Amino acid sequence: MAPHTAPGTAAVELTGVRRRYGKGAGAVHALRGIDLRLAHGSFTAVMGPSGSGKSTFLQCAAGLDRPTEGSVRLGGTEITGLGENALTELRRSRLGFVFQSFNLLPSLTVEQNVLLPLRLAGARPDRRRAAEVLGRVGLADKGARRPGELSGGQQQRVAIARALVTRPDVIFGDEPTGALDTTTAAEVLALLRGAVDRLGATVVMVTHDPVAASYADQVLFLADGALADTLPRSTPERIGARMTALTARTSAGVAA
Ligand code: ADP
User: Which of 30, 124, 146, 186 is least surrounded by Cβ atoms within 10 Å, i.e. has the fewest?
Assistant: First the structure.
């Protein structure tokens, strides 16, 4: 557990989180009051139909966007009132991110990419730590390469190493396997699962893929900006069936 985290605090805690875009009659209610607590060492998948609020949820939970109302706590720290600089520092030192498009810096080596969060957070660029996390993702011998010399799956593994390097409170994933083939996606998901099981990492991942969601301890379903359903760890078939039911219900609601 990270030293700045008091025992018993959740890794992620949202209370009454609302996010509205625009005002008046044309306002869009992207999140309509989200309440949840995610424990340290948990792996959560967030699913939902297009437009249900998944991206907005992730942005608000990760301090990249500000809720219109409500509170977000990360590792016990209330982030809703933080200024821009404090928020940026918190993101750099205490959160990890894994995106669909990898977001590695092409001009830096793999090792330099992995060390970047430490540099940006003003910490010592600990090369042994970089070697350790690169070893964990199976890229011990690739530190001197540039991202462009690696396959998509390898690049995403570099991104996971980069996300792990600071021992963050939470790793947020936005469709982390969206650009990968099935086999490579399975490797990346197994790594995230392993980070949770063996390193005690906390992962929150938005995905539309029931197979990806089947690696999580629980699946949260958003519909129309609200938490509509949850499933404990399930098979892709069960998760897919729940998504289909939810989408049917939501479209019926829209049509009505
Ligand atoms: P999802 O990720 O599930 O597709 P989003 O969080 O992107 O859903 O969007 C939720 C709702 O908020 C949608 O109706 C979308 O059109 C709206 N929305 C998202 N971002 C903005 C924005 N910057 N301005 C106005 N409306 C937005």
Answer: 124
- pTM score of the predicted model: 0.93
Task: Give CA–CA dist 251/204, Å, rounded.
Answer: 26
Which CATH architecture does the domain made up of 12-255 adopt?
Answer: 3-Layer(aba) Sandwich (3.40)
Distance CA 146, CA 78 (A): 37
Residue partners of 31: CB distance under 8 A and separation at least 6: 17, 18, 19, 53, 56, 57, 60, 67, 225, 226
- Residue carrying structure tokens 């900006």: 225
**Alpha carbon distance 202, 45 (integer Å):** 11
- What is the CA 97 to chain-centroid distance, rounded? 6
If you measure from the C-alpha of residue 226 to the centroid of ligand 1, how many angstroms do you get, rounded to a whole number? 13
Residue (of 239, 233, 222, 249) closest to 14 by Cα position = 222
How does pLDDT run across 197-256, given as a tens digit for each residue? 999 999 999 999 999 999 999 999 999 999 999 999 999 999 999 999 998 887 765 544
Residues 13 and 36: beta-carbon distance below 8 Å: yes
**253: its two tokens:** 């609601």
